[in-house]
Amino acid sequence: MATTDSILQGVNVLGKVDESHRKILTPDALAFLALLHRSFNPTRKALLERRRLRQAELDRGVLPTFLPETRHIRENDAWRGAPPAPGLVDRRVEITGPTDRKMVVNALNSDVWTYMADLEDSSAPTWENMINGQVNLYDANRRQVDFKQGPKEYKLRTDRKLPTLIVRPRGWHLDEKHVTVDGEPISGSLFDFGLYFFHNAFETVKIGQGPYFYLPKMESHLEARLWNDVFNLAQDYISMPRGTIRGTVLIETILAAFEMDEIIYELRDHSSGLNCGRWDYIFSVIKKFRNNKDFVLPDRSAVTMTVPFMDAYVKLLIQTCHRRGVHAMGGMAAQIPIKDDKAANDKAMDGVRADKLREVRAGHDGTWVAHPALATIATEVFNKHMPTPNQLFVRREDVQISPNDLLNMNVPGVITEDGIRKNLNIGLGYMEAWVRGVGCVPINFLMEDAATAEVSRSQLWQWTKHGVSTADGRTVDKAYALRLLKECADELAAKGPKGNKFKLASQYFAGQITGEDYADFLTTLLYDEITQVGSPRSASKL
Ligand SMILES: CC(=O)SCCNC(=O)CCNC(=O)[C@H](O)C(C)(C)COP(=O)(O)OP(=O)(O)OC[C@H]1O[C@@H](n2cnc3c(N)ncnc32)[C@H](O)[C@@H]1OP(=O)(O)O
Ligand SMILES: O=CC(=O)O
Ligand SMILES: [Mg+2]
């Protein structure tokens, strides 16, 4: 049998390793990562190549439809996903947030049912953020995460059961360049999943939960199959019964919406349902059909959850999940508390309340909040309209969604200069924060993260590409877009703190809004800006 030392041949760590990281980057954990990489990276790369081929097909005007080759899965009424796992039966309000220590403690102390610790949309994947995030989650599962920051003590509450922890690793497209295996960077997904699983799987069971995950940004059921294979190998490796892991899949790409049944089917013994990742979903619709002028959308504020394509996606997701006995989770309203303006705050909170009411009435089993102060509103709405732990029994047999419904871009609204400026401010503001290592920021009283910023970026690209007209009759062309960008960037740079990164953000953004270059993701475009690789150190000699 191979020894840990021999497995670690070819495994290098290029990121800075502090004393506090050593409990995470153990030889055994790194050997497990190497096994995951060697077993699954070739398939991951093939699936990413498949995404590129699919894009070329969409660019030729081929529209997606339900897959003929998997009709037997959709039409078979007999199969079900796994029954809800311990700690996941009632998940009516889930808080989400990045994994810095303060946020972890605050999230676990919130009045919610679960906490999605986010290594994805709300985290900038600096090495420091990713590895410290693992330390914080390790400590959280062992209930040893208390700490002091200045005069303030952050302590886990003991007056009630803490929310169930669910971890969202990065998507399949992202590399983690600070660890290489046989000369290749490891996948961000395998790194995040692997370290969390290796160190916490049994601990989570001990506290009455399990190793639970949210799985982001998938584009097909084959990508779900890859996760399922990863789960099986991981459980076998530590002799944990298969089916202990659970994964809730974010349906947040338009192509995945055509494969909801198939995605649950692939993961079925590990499935804990689907979630409406609404922001990435809007991003994906714009991105995938960016070369098709029929998919041009109005100002971002007009693309609400009730426009036809969003409404169809929500209904299909709930119907599909409940037919298969798994949770249909709602998503994130972007409003956050506004501290110094009661009237504005009341309006924002009414917006959150209306969103949660729509979700519970539609049949969702739970929802997301971005901030602890929103938990009460979401709880009140769900408690009132969902007296049972979930509403898996709401079958939505009334719903009939066709491919045309999912692609119905009949969205009322116009494109305005104000909408363009808002998108520019969001894109610049978010990118500026991200290159400083901050993955989620409030901008104009809305939560902005990697998904919401992508909507803004992609709209700007699409509007310039297709030379749309604004409500007051201006044609959006490259010169106009770049003039407004310069105005916004100069203003933000002048107002921002000394040493801000708006100039850098603007240089990157200029290349993304003229309808020419289009990076696959802002996060892959900017990743080298936050990568700090030192000379490789062999994992066996850390
Ligand atoms: C599209 C998607 O993927 S949605 C999912 C990903 N996005 C998210 O998870 C959003 C997470 N939310 C956040 O990061 C933050 O709420 C922000 C950036 C939007 C706003 O943060 P702030 O401006 O710091 O908010 P604010 O000052 O009101 O925070 C008050 C307190 O609540 C805490 N807090 C705010 N949001 C959260 C959260 N999501 N989880 C835990 N604690 C939180 C803050 O740490 C702060 O704590 P302190 O009093 O101990 O210092
Ligand atoms: O991850 C959630 C989203 O809305 O995107
Ligand atoms: Mg998302």
How is the secondary structure organized here?
Layout: H1 4-7, E1 11-13, H2 27-59, H3 71-75, E2 93-98, H4 101-108, E3 114-118, H5 127-141, E4 147-149, E5 152-154, E6 164-168, E7 175-181, E8 184-187, H6 188-206, E9 212-215, H7 221-237, E10 246-251, H8 254-257, H9 260-266, E11 271-276, H10 278-288, H11 308-323, E12 328-329, H12 342-362, E13 367-369, H13 375-385, H14 403-406, H15 417-435, E14 441-443, E15 446-448, H16 450-465, H17 478-495, H18 502-510, H19 522-526, E16 537-538
Parallel strand pairs: 2-3, 2-13, 3-6, 9-10, 10-11, 11-12
Antiparallel strand pairs: 1-7, 1-16, 4-5, 7-8, 14-15
The structure holds acetyl coenzyme *A, the ligand O=CC(=O)O and magnesium ion.
The site of magnesium ion (MG) has 8 residues, from α10.
Domain Malate synthase TIM barrel: 164-408
Main location: other
Domain Malate synthase N-terminal: 10-72
Distance between the termini: 23 Å
Q: Decide which structural class fits the backbone.
A: alpha/beta
- Major sheet characteristics: 4 strands, antiparallel
Rg of Cα set: 22 Å
Q: Kindly state the mean pLDDT as a whole number? A: 97
Low-pLDDT runs of 5+ residues are none
Q: List ligands, each type once.
A: acetyl coenzyme *A, ligand LL5AMS7Z, magnesium ion
Helix percentage range: 40-55%
Helices, by number, come to: 19
Shape: globular
For the biggest β-sheet, the strand order reads 8-7-1-16
Count the E strands: 16
Work out the strand percent.
5-15%
Domain Malate synthase N-terminal: 10-72
Family: Belongs to the malate synthase family.
InterPro entries: Malate_synth_C_sf, Malate_synth_sf, Malate_synthA, Malate_synthase_CS, Malate_synthase_TIM, MS_C, MS_N, MS_N_TIM-barrel_dom
Keywords: Glyoxylate bypass, Peroxisome, Transferase, Tricarboxylic acid cycle
